[in-house]
Amino acid sequence: MTAPVYLVDDDAAVRDALSLLLSTVGIDVMAFPGAEDFLSALPKLDPGCLILDIRMPAISGLKLQERLTASGVSWPTVVISGHGDIEACRKAFRNGAIDFLSKPIDEQDLIDAIQKGQAVLGRAAEADAERVETMALMAGLTPREREVLSLVARGFATRDIAVALDVSPRTVESHRAAIGAKLGTTSPAEMTRLWIEAESAP
Amino acid sequence: MARVIAWALICGLALAVLAGFERSTRLADLTAQSERLHAVASQRVDQHDAHLTALSAIAVAGVEQRPDLFRDVAAAIMQFYPRIIGISLVPLDGESSLLEIGINEAEITDVIRAAVNRSTGTPVLVRYPSDRPAYLIVKRSPNSDAARYGLALVIDAAALLNGDSAYWTQAEASRWLALPDQTLLVGVDSDGPAPHFVRALSSGTQPLELKTAIRMTVSDVLPPGRVAIVLALIALGALALRAIGRQRAKVRAAEARVELSGLETRLSHASRVNALGEMASGMAHELTQPLTAILAQAQAARHLAARGDTERVAAVLDDVVGQTRRASEILARLRTWTRPRERNAEAIDLRECVRVAETLLAGQAAELGALLDVAVPSAPLSVEGDRVELEQVLFNLMRNALDAVAESTGARKVGVAAFLDGDTAVIDVSDTGPGIRPDIRGRLFTPFVTTREHGTGLGLALSHRLVERAGGDLTVVETREGARFLISLPLARTVREAAE
């Protein structure tokens, strides 16, 4: 699985050459001549790895980075620059860049950075998938079972839960058995983990 | 005011010192003259003792028999010593004949007799009983209780004091001579100032008291000539002090100038270093772009070659060649602008300068999506100047304009219009950017004034200087939108002459 790579650089020659280079190693690149072009295309784009040139007219790479962060897009970003400018480098990393490369860029450095970005994206995708799965499992619980699970996750024993819900301990036991069957685990720790994951999901 | 008072004080002090000096000089003079007078007078009165002794001896030896001898000697003495105006030999027994030489007054005889009666051995001094300033010195003869005669010399006190010194003839000098009992002989009582010199003559028989004084007026202690000299010296001193002060101020000013020029030198050096830094930084960035492309293309070509895709390798190599040319053009431009060169004024066509700048900036304009609208007349715009310098000016103005429209979110247009206005060639460079900030509008052509984060503030300052060097002017024009600059340059002479 490879996520798409987006390149934003105002220099046509650089854009074309980097796209060509990455295509020869099997990485497809979508290139944009400026920040505005990228931002207008953004809604239709899949999550991918960003390569941003710092020095661009109108909106610099760093400003684009800030805008993306502000609008909740946290794709892995590699910042490239013609200057070995430490201040710009610091800003880029503070904005969450995963790498900072100086032009001219060696292919291996670029590929490594992209792979690092893709790994980040992959982990994010996995986490997303896991969360989707958890949500699906949770969706299978009845409201009462969810209530019982929340108390289990908080560390209450069956007897305490029975008192709290004003039911018999036996009833609580049967709820727990049903929850275990639906979530595929009988371990209170695992149940707690799933519950926390579901609660922290947006 | 304070200065006037200070000078008045200094003048007063100097005059007081002068007066003191003059006074002490005059007193010292008086003392010296008085000492001399005292010595002469003392010596003279001593002679009287000798005469008395001689005359007494003659009288005792037998004046009865030889009165003529006594007369002769007395006459000789009086002839040699004119101050002795009379000699009198008075017999005490009243029988012998009275001998009087030079005087003939009856009461003198009684005075002499009375004096002899008072005498206890030393001669007696008596005021001469007339208006003449004279005194009698009376001696017993022989000088014992068995004296038979009273011998007297009548001495003119004024003549006693006469001398060759002109000092005492001046009106300011006063002198008094008195008998030891304070009977005044010479001088007027209560006349003039208190005496400065008082001394008795050094004579055992005639310790006459000599007093002298000098009267000093303001013009004496402050002689106008010396006062003038002193005041002149003070004035000269003041002038000299002022001159020294001015000289010091000049030296200080010169030192300040040297320091300032050192500062200017450092500043100009700093500006050169800055300009160089900016240029190097700009060049580095510009060169980085083609190098980045070349590196990527070369690495891509290696992959393609490995795959045997020679067709695409050839295409990529063409791109490499193109990017290499781009880099060498950048370097050529750098060389043209940085090589130390003689300014070469010649007749040049401004349209060509505009075209060169347009060519250099077309790429940037295209990337910005800015419209570079250049309008030049069909006829040449010939001016006298340095081609490269004027190209640089146009490049600077147009690049500034492009940078300005890059910040604009609306229309991005840079207009360059060259036209002829009478004898002047004008190039109008305008943009649709955010315009010039009011706070730096007045200092636009001042070095180091910039609104760009990494700008040195030298571009417009340099452009302004270069246009002025070509005999023209670079001005900023008030507009509602964006910024607008006008370059006006006088037409080359040949063109103007041809037109006439």
Characterization of the model:
By secondary structure, chain A is of the alpha/beta class. Chain A is elongated, with a radius of gyration of 24 Å. Chain A has 9 helices and 5 strands; from the N terminus they run βαβαβαβαβααααα. In chain A, strands 2-1-3-4-5 form a 5-stranded parallel beta sheet, sandwiched between helices. Helix content of chain A is 59%, strand content 11%. In chain A, strand 3, helix 3 and strand 4 (77-81) form a beta-alpha-beta unit. The mean pLDDT of chain A is 87. The two termini of chain A are 26 Å apart. Chain A folds into 2 domains: 5-126, Response regulator (Rossmann fold); 140-200, Winged helix-like DNA-binding domain superfamily/Winged helix DNA-binding domain (Arc Repressor Mutant, subunit A). In chain A, helix 5 crosses helix 9 and helix 6 (143-153) packs across helix 8. Chain B has 500 residues and is of the alpha+beta class. Chain B has 2 domains: 2-221, no CATH class; 347-499, Histidine kinase-like ATPase, C-terminal domain (Heat Shock Protein 90, 2-Layer Sandwich), CATH 3.30.565.10. Chain B has 12 helices and 16 strands. Chain B has helices at 2-62, 67-80, 106-118, 157-161, 218-221, 224-307, 310-338, 350-368, 387-406, 438-441, 459-469, 493-499; strands at residues 84-91, 99-101, 124-127, 134-141, 149-156, 173-178, 184-186, 197-200, 209-214, 345-349, 371-375, 382-386, 413-421, 424-431, 473-477, 484-490. In chain B, the strands form 4 sheets. A 5-stranded antiparallel beta sheet of chain B has the order 2-1-5-4-3, with helices on both faces. In chain B, strands 11-13-14-16-15 form a 5-stranded mixed beta sheet. In chain B, helix 6 (224-307) runs antiparallel to helix 7 and helix 9 (387-406) runs antiparallel to helix 11 (459-469). Chain B is rod-shaped and about 185 Å long. The model of chain B has no long low-confidence stretch (mean pLDDT 83). At the A-B interface, helix 1 of A face helix 6 and helix 7 of B.
